[in-house]
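Hello,

Our lab assistant flagged a job as stuck in the queue for most of the afternoon. It eventually completed. Since we weren't sure the result was trustworthy after the delay, we are filing this so someone can double-check. Below is the sequence as submitted and the structure that was eventually returned. Let us know if re-running is recommended.
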Amino acid sequence: MSREKNFFKQIKSSLNKSDFIQKIENKYNSGFPDLIIINEIMPLFIELKAPIKGNRIKLEKSQISTHLRIYNNNYISFILVRDPLTSNAFLFDGYNVANCIVRGQDQPNFLDHGSIPQCLQSANNQTKKRACDFFGFTPRLSAN
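-- returned structure --
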């Protein structure tokens, strides 16, 4: 079983039964994030990365384009990177990573590092904040 498939199973098992998760097969949607999770206010678009080694996030051109388009349409995307040495994960803002790659800059700092549920909660909070900024109201963020 692939590293990414195992990573997906870890994520799925950490969600509530009421949460909606859809794995996107990228045969026909080149560049689209691997997962859509709907569990609170807006969809979470999540690209999964399960590297064996190294600390660089590698994205295809189509993935870079998709993360930039998601941002330009007032949504937020994430890159969830499985730590190859632990079962923890690093959460990155997809737009920031894609933008840094396009500009040839160092990759941005992660938004969160910890358990998969902790990173998913952080993604929810970031998404809520973005929605509230867009619609002009104050968010109520969940505790980590």
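-- support follow-up --
The delay was a queue issue, not a problem with the job. The result is valid. The two ends are 31 Å apart (CA to CA). The chain has one domain: 3-135.
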